[in-house]
Amino acid sequence: MTTPRAVERSLSELNLLGPDGWPAWTQVLQKSYKTNYGRSEDPVYLHLASKTRLGAVTLLAVQFLDFLQEDGRYVMFQMSITDQNLLSTIQSNQVGQLAWQMPKSREYFHLTGKFYICSAPRQVTRYSPPVLPHISGTAEDLATQRQVSNQFWEAKRVEQWRKLPPKIRASYTWPMSGSTPKAPSTSFQCLAMEDLTQQEAVGRNNNRDSLMSQDGTPYPMSSPSSPSSVTSFRSRWNSFAGGATSPTTDEAPAPLSPISAKIRNDNPAKILHDIALDNFCLLLFKPLDIVHFESSPLPPKRTIYTVDAAGQWVVTEANP
Q1: 297: pLDDT strictly greater than 80
Q2: Which portions of this protein are annotated as coiled-coil regions (predicted)?
């Protein structure tokens, strides 16, 4: 028979942080992820449930990116700044719930927490990434801490961008998800994009290799002689530079300025790459309440991780 003291000692052990000083659920979630996905390159999607300011319930899918190695309290997802459905949901309500069903181990995680948006420096969004104490703890004033923290998050954003497959990078050049098509079909001709963040100058030969269409031919934007490519490029360049919208295909194309024409002719792939990089955001999630259910053992096991008023994690074994 289990004594009350033994139960109290067991709960006390569960309340300890992980071996790296992280919450105990961090090790459990990361171990489950490795067991179920291993080295698979298939995208992993989680269901996000949230409420808007008007009380409407939204259900969306977010793509898992990685665990934050510097701080186990955060999980990273990817988001495009052009995804207005997801962006408006997060900016309307910072708190959301995620459901993660593991395909092999017959367990699931229900996570409730706060979202933070790590966008490009030139983008303006709500709920910017938090200041991590161990990253900016040596700074003296708050302004310096925020500056150091912003540099850290931007470095993480670029680091994750470099890890993306070429096909995923190319998707950040596409029009807004879920919207009615208004752009010509050339908007989706970029189907693979190489990382150009480490290249200061890219020659024309590299331009042709960095943007490839589905049949393996160079992306038309690398050929200034194509009318559709010029119009498509002008649309993206105006969007990137904050200029006016591009004319339709029925209108006579307005002449490009000498600066933009030179950039287009010299390195169109780099311009399109930078537009895609500006659209790429890290969607950070900080869990505050986690329910972990394991259906494999008999009886099943349910573990609840919560944060108390003092900011300490409390782990409780609940009835299945």
Answers
A1: yes
A2: none
b/e string for 129-156 if b means 16 or more Cβ within 10 A? bbbbeebbeeeeeeeebeebbbebbbeb
70 and 148 share one domain: yes
Q: Is 0.90 topped by the overall pTM?
A: no
pLDDT digits (tens, 9 = 90+) for 175-228: 887 777 776 677 788 888 888 887 643 343 344 334 444 444 434 333 222 333
In 10 A of CB 121, how many CB atoms? 11
> Band of the pLDDT at 4, cuts 50, 70, 90?
very low
* Backbone φ and ψ of 167, nearest 5°: -70, -35
Cα separation, 74 vs 65, in Å, equals 11
Q: Is the distance from CB of 247 to CB of 231 less than 8 angstroms?
A: yes
Distance CA 193, CA 189 (A): 11
Q: b or e along 272-291 (b: 16 or more beta carbons within 10 Å of the residue's beta carbon)?
A: bbbbbbbbbbbbbbbbeebb
* 11 and 87 assigned to the same domain: yes
| Separation between Cα atoms, residue 118 and residue 76, nearest integer Å | 10
Q: Give the SS3 label for residue 210.
A: helix
Short-list 248, 218, 244, 209, CA closest to 232:
248
Task: Let me know whether 284 and 274 are in one domain.
Answer: no
Please determine, for residue 108, whether its predicted confidence score (pLDDT) is greater than 90: yes
Same domain for 291 and 195? no
Per the model's pLDDT, the better-predicted residue between 18 and 121 turns out to be: 121
Query: Domain tally for the chain?
Result: 2
Q: What pairing do the DSSP bridges indicate for beta strands 75-80 and 45-51?
A: unpaired
Residues 150, 151, 152, 157: is their CA dihedral positive or negative? positive
Alpha-carbon span 223 to 265, nearest angstrom? 9
pLDDT at residue 249 in the model: 39
Q: What is the pLDDT of residue 134?
A: 62
